[in-house]
Amino acid sequence: xxxxxxxxxxxxxxxxxxxxxxxxxxxxxxxxxxxxxxxxxxxxxxxxxxxxxxxxxxxxxxxxxxxxxxxxxxxxxxxxxxxxxxxxxxxxxxxxxxxxxxxxxxxxxxxxxxxxxxxxxxxxxxxxxxxxxxxxxxxxxxxxxxxxxxxxxxxxxxxxxxxxxxxxxxxxxxxxxxxxxxxxxxxxxxxxxxxxxxxxxxxxxxxxxxxxxxxxxxxxxxxxxxxxxxxxxxxxxxxxxxxxxxxxxxxxxxxxxxxxxxxxxxx
Length: 267
Fold this sequence. Notes:
Elements: E1 9-10, E2 27-28, E3 42-43, H1 44-51, H2 58-66, E4 71-72, E5 75-76, E6 83-84, E7 89-92, E8 97-103, E9 109-113, E10 121-131, E11 137-141, E12 146-148, E13 159-163, E14 168-173, E15 180-183, E16 192-199, E17 207-212, E18 217-221, E19 225-229, H3 250-266
Antiparallel strand pairs: 1-2, 3-6, 4-5, 4-7, 7-8, 8-9, 10-11, 10-13, 11-12, 13-14, 15-16, 15-19, 16-17, 17-18
Helix pairs in contact: 1-2
């Protein structure tokens, strides 16, 4: 009989998007409780060792973190298994690098290099908007941040631009038809496009339709999308990963690889 929370994780049950091989050890670092869910997060040790290649072993990653060299959303984190997640800003002051964690079209986390100015803020999807004790209004974002006295126009589903120094919302992006959205869950994870249709289903999940930059449309649940920019010709508030969120089929990926090989051979 289990007593208390689980403290271990086997490699075979670890999330596939961590891309841990199954022959180099039996266990995987189990994420600590934190701002992101276990299967939707990336532990800092995996980020430093397997993605950024700043460490070769678990112990080397521990030395980097214990020297207070890594900041997540502007705060020093020394926990090896701290769960970094979608839209988090990871900074390494010693190298002057800043990364934002985003998804590629295959649902894997990509530490995207960003500028120092962009590293001063992050986006947060509003998941709760309520009135607390004493009549104080507050909102809760997707990463667990609670902010009192927000803009009265803020609704659930909107996105707020959060200043990391003060942890206060400085701007709001409304959820409406024509806005730019990022799919951060479901089978279409990592795809980016423009919101075209919202279908309401009483007693069920609301379904939205999104059209990407190549003109292809896909449908997903309303809870799976994250607003990243207003409609029209305005640009997204965050730098987008390679490919701009357009998902390619297996044949299209093959053709692109062959074109690159032929280009390199002719060069």
